[in-house]
Structure formats: C-alpha cells, structure tokens
Automatic annotation (TrEMBL), chain A:
Gene3D superfamilies linked: P-loop containing nucleotide triphosphate hydrolases
MF terms in GO: ATP binding; ATP hydrolysis activity; L-isoleucine transmembrane transporter activity; L-phenylalanine transmembrane transporter activity; L-valine transmembrane transporter activity
Protein name, per record: Branched-chain amino acid transport system ATP-binding protein
Annotated ranges, domain ABC transporter: 3-250
Coiled coil (residue ranges): none
Iron-sulfur is among the record's keywords: no
GO CC terms, sorted: plasma membrane
Automatic annotation (TrEMBL), chain B:
GO CC list: plasma membrane
GO molecular function: branched-chain amino acid transmembrane transporter activity
Record membrane topology: Multi-pass membrane protein
Places the protein is found: Cell membrane
Phylogenetic placement of the source organism: Bacteria, Bacillati, Bacillota, Bacilli, Bacillales
Keyword Hydrolase belongs to the record: no
Descriptive protein name: Branched-chain amino acid transport system permease protein
Keywords: Cell membrane, Membrane, Transmembrane, Transmembrane helix
Record field: transmembrane: 9-25, 31-50, 57-77, 83-105, 112-128, 162-180, 213-235, 247-272, 284-311
Length: 254, 332
C-alpha cells in the first residue's frame, strides 16, 4: 500500500473534525476528497501532512507510520502539499520565490553560507536549476522574472504547485487547487494535474468543482461531518444515495 | 550587468567616504557620534536579521546589547581579563544566553513572541539594575578598558577607534550579506513569508528560527561589547526598553528586511536628532509623524521605497523592450 490512513480521527475538544476514516491513496492516480463545507477535508489533509497530530489512528506511508512526524520530516519523505492560500514574498520574483523549494534536498549550513563553500555554490546551482525546471513544468517559465506582487490568482496557484514539485515529491496533496479561478483556467490546471500523474507523481486533491472532479479523478472519497460516507469511482459516487443526501440535504426521495 | 557594476562602485564610494571622514574633519564630537552610530548599526543588523528576514520581532534586543556590554565590562573590570579575550568572549556569552532564551521564546509566535521578548528584555534590565553585587546597580561599571594595541597597530586615538568600529561594521555587513543571500537566508525568508508553507516544503522551522534568533543576539552582544569599550562606562540604562525602541525606529525608517536599511535609518535618525537638538524633547513632534507616515506609505522604509521604484522602472524598461521587439517583428 502506498499511502494509507487507518482509522484516523482528529478532534478539537468536543468537535470531531475527522472521525475514524480509512482511506488509501492509489499510486499513480488522481485521488479526490470531496464533501460539503466543514466536512473535515482540510483537517484530514492537515493530519496526513503532519500539521496536526491525529487524535487516534495512523498514517502509513510505504509501510512506515508517519503520524507522529513533523511536517518538514514528512516533506523529506516525498510528501508535498499546497494550501488554499499561498503567502509568497511579493517584492521578489517568481523565480526567487521558488528556489527555496528544493532547500530540503540540500545540506548547506551557516558555515557554508558565511564562507561560501564549494558545497553551497553547487547546491545553490542545483536549487536554481530545479526552480527553472518546475516553473517550466507548470507553465510559468515566461513569468519567472516577474514580481509576485503583479501576477494573477491563477499564476499564484501555479507557483504553489511549483513549490510543492520542487521538493521532489512522490505524492502531492492539493488543497482546493482551483478555488477562485475561472472555468478556462480551471481546465488548464486540471491538465496540469494530469501532467503530474504522467510524470509519475501521485495526486490527491480536495475540490468543490464537481464537474471537474468527476472528469478528472480516478477515485473519490466523500466526507460528511468528519465521516467517510462513500468511496469509489466517479460513477459510483454519482449514483450513491448517501452522497446525494449529503449534498442536497434531507431525504433524496423527491 | 551595468546595474551590478554601479552597485559595486556605489558601495566602494561609500566605504571610501567612511574612510576619509576622520582625515577631512577634525571635529572630534562628530567623529564620536559617527562611531557610536556604527555601533548602533551593528545592533540594528542583528534585529533586522530576526525581525526583517525571519519575521520574528524581538523586543529583548537592548537586553542582549546590555548583556554583551556587561559581559565585557565585568570580565575586564572585575575579572581582570585583558581586552581582547574579553572582547571575543562577550558576544559568545550573549549568544549562549540567547540560545536558552530562544528555546523558550520561540514557542510563541507573532505578537505573543513580541510580548514575551518584551518581558524578557525588561527582566534582563531588572537583573542588571538590581544585582548590585555583580553589576554595581545604578552606579554602573567604570573604567572599562578600550581596545589595546595589536602589535604595531595603534588603537587608542579617536581616529583609530573609529576605524576599528568601522572595520567591525563592514565585517558585520559582509556576514549579513552572505547569510541573507544563501540557502540559509532563503529558509529564513520563507519562514517570514509563511511559516506553515515553509515547514511543509521541508524546512525545519524550529532549527532555522533558533539559528536566526541566536545570530541576532550575537550581533547585539557584539555591539554591546563595542559600546562598553568605546564609552568606557556602562549603566543599566543601556539595556532599557527605550534602547530597543530606538533600534526599532532605526530599522523601520531605514527599511525592515533590507540590507541597506539599518545603515540608512540609523545615520538619518542620529544626524536628525543631532541637528534638531535645539528643539529638545519637541524633536518627537518631528519623529512621530515621520515614523507614522513611513509605516503607512512605505512599510519597508526608505530602502524599500527605493527598491520598489527600482523594480518598477526595470519592469517598465523590460515591457518597453518587449513592445519594441513586437513592433519590429510586426514590420518584417
């Protein structure tokens, strides 16, 4: 099993944000998590990527329990993520902002920095090459030298992708990657996700845009009030009684 | 490339001016003020590394400045140590104390961190002020030795001490430049922009924040040690919270998170307060509005104002070139 959540729960005081969820991410596929607002999707992501410790249950990545590791150690293992909002350095270029993404694969320390050792020069070069490579991959090579303060929402989403990809991940968790962008741009971002999968990176995303998800995802899990109510292919989810109920509210008999 | 060259020439010119000042002016008072400003600049660089580049505003900075100064003072006056070993030990002592305080302080964030360090700074002040047996309390420490000659290099005249402090300052600027422009510096900046994001791209935020904090206390301690050896007398007031706010004003006016900001802000404010001395405390009527308008209109200070203008111009030029190329392409 590639990445697996076993009986995962997270509560904040009396609030059960995630309740005994079992979920496995399929390698090399696009996995989606959907659910109404407040269903615990983001919390589920935060628990898996180490931002929150699970209240109970485990997260297993390639056979190892990672549920107690801090986010930076989890990133080191090859699990990257994006956030709904990405705060970047507005007064620097897109390129400058992405260079740090490969920092985790380098070893230069303060000593290297002060004496500008050979190692630090090589590693800086490596980080810059990586930044160019991922900017190219996400289709932002032309904007590399532009100030982050002057670029569009959709381009910021792409930078977030680029930063995540610069960490050399095996799997990326994307938290609402297309929130706040128009339908055409959504389509382009969806293509970008497919491109990631083609490159061998597993994708797991949270989304609200149903049409897009139904087209894009190989596998969908539905959360409601912190509990898993359905899991399966888009077709299965489309015809699931419980899911329709959760989304439309009340009984679905009408 | 030409901009890089002109930057280099500007830097060399500024250093040359700094070197020539004592030769051109015989006014010892101004030289004294300038030397003192250089010492403040070193402290501001420490504050800027932490607050400007890492995003953690420490209000205990004067406390660490005081620790550096008292470390040098106590080691020489009470410990009988000669100047140079004490001068190297003082920043190290400050750094060690900074490390342990940082371990606790960095468990807090944002304004809680500022409030916590404000308290730490005040506690350091109280310890220095009240522990009469060790520090001499309000009477302070008198008779701290200045830098002694190194072989043939004479360090006792006012000019020589000016050059000594200038050398240390240049070294500090160089160090900060190297740190900020390295992968370590990039990690600091990533933490400042978004700590959660920084951690999720694999940066150990705890380690980097602590490193930045400890470095900032090192520069504060170094500045303190220089101050003690330059003024030769220290009292508890040098670790007072007022000093922290002075340093903060220097940093904000000059440009928080910029490399040249500490120099610009400190020199400007020190010169202004000298020129406006006839106004006495009414000087604040000028500084207050100045500070407020800078925070409103240019949050990154004077240096930030210049940088914004510079990048705008560069972007415009680039756009111009692109449209030119496009029109050429259209003609052919």
């Amino acid at each position: 099993m590639f990445l697996e959540a076993k009986n995962l729960s997270k509560h904040f005081g009396g609030l059960h944000a995630v309740k005994e969820v079992d979920f496995s991410v399929e390698k090399g596929k696009i996995n989606a998590i959907i659910g109404p607002n407040g269903a615990g999707k983001s919390t589920f992501f935060n628990v898996i990527t180490g931002l929150h410790r699970p209240s109970s249950g485990q997260v297993i990545f390639k056979g190892d329990d990672i549920s107690k590791l801090p986010p930076n150690k989890i990133a080191l293992l090859g699990i990257a993520r994006t956030f709904q909002t990405t705060n970047l350095f507005e007064q620097a270029t897109v390129f400058e902002n992405v260079v740090v993404g490969h920092r985790l694969r380098t070893k230069s320390n303060l000593f290297d920095a002060i004496f500008r050792t050979k190692r630090t020069k090589q590693e800086e070069e490596k980080c810059k090459e990586k930044a160019l490579e991922v900017l190219h991959f996400v289709g932002l090579a032309h904007a590399a030298e532009r100030m982050v303060g002057s670029i569009s929402q959709e381009e910021k989403k792409r930078i977030a992708f680029a930063l995540a990809l610069a960490t050399d991940p095996e799997i990326v968790f994307l938290d609402e990657p297309t929130a706040g962008v128009n339908p055409d741009e959504t389509e382009e971002l969806a293509q970008l996700m497919q491109k990631m999968v083609q490159k061998g990176i597993t994708v797991c995303l949270i989304e609200h845009k149903m049409q897009m998800i139904m087209k894009l995802a190989d596998k969908i899990m539905v959360l409601n009030y912190g509990e898993k109510i359905a899991e399966g292919t888009p077709d299965e989810i489309n015809n699931n009684e419980e899911v329709i109920k959760a989304y439309l509210g009340g009984s679905a008999s009408a | 490339m030409p901009t890089l060259l002109s930057k280099k020439y500007a830097l060399i010119a500024i250093i040359l001016v700094a070197i020539l000042i004592p030769l051109l002016s015989t006014n010892e008072y101004y030289l004294h003020i300038l030397t003192l400003s250089f010492i403040w600049i070193i402290a501001v660089y420490g504050l800027n590394l932490l607050a400007g580049f890492t995003g953690y505003l420490s209000l205990a900075h004067a406390g660490f400045f005081g620790i550096g100064a008292y470390a040098l003072g106590l080691l020489t006056v009470k410990g009988g140590m000669s100047f140079w070993p004490a001068f190297f030990l003082a920043p190290v002592i400050t750094t060690v104390i900074g490390f342990f305080i940082g371990l606790v302080a960095l468990r807090t964030k944002e304004h809680f961190f500022a409030i916590y360090t404000l308290c730490v700074g005040y506690i350091i002040y109280l310890v220095i002020d009240k522990w009469e047996g060790l520090t001499g309390g309000v009477r302070g420490l008198i008779g701290i030795p200045g830098p002694t000659n190194i072989g043939p290099i004479e360090l006792t005249s006012a000019n020589a001490r000016y050059y000594f402090v200038l050398t240390v300052l240049l070294l500090v600027v160089f160090l900060i430049y190297r740190i900020v422009n390295s992968l370590v510096g990039r990690s600091f900046i990533a933490i400042r922009n978004d700590e959660q994001l920084a951690q999720s791209i694999g940066i150990s935020t705890l380690k980097n924040k602590l490193m930045s904090f400890v470095l900032s206390t090192f520069f504060a301690g170094l500045a303190g040690a220089l101050y003690a050896s330059f003024i030769r007398f220290i009292g508890p007031d040098i670790s007072n919270i007022n000093i922290t706010f002075d340093l903060l004003i220097f940093m904000i006016v000059g440009g928080i998170g910029t490399l040249s900001g500490p120099v610009i802000g400190t020199l400007l404010i020190v010169v202004l307060s000298q020129q406006l001395q006839f106004l006495q405390d009414h000087r604040m009527l000028i500084f207050g509005p100045l500070l407020t308008s800078i925070i409103i209109f240019s949050p990154r200070g004077l240096a930030g104002m210049y940088l914004t203008w510079y990048y705008k111009r560069k972007a415009k030029k680039k756009a111009q070139i692109q449209t030119d190329n496009a029109s050429i392409g259209g003609d052919s």
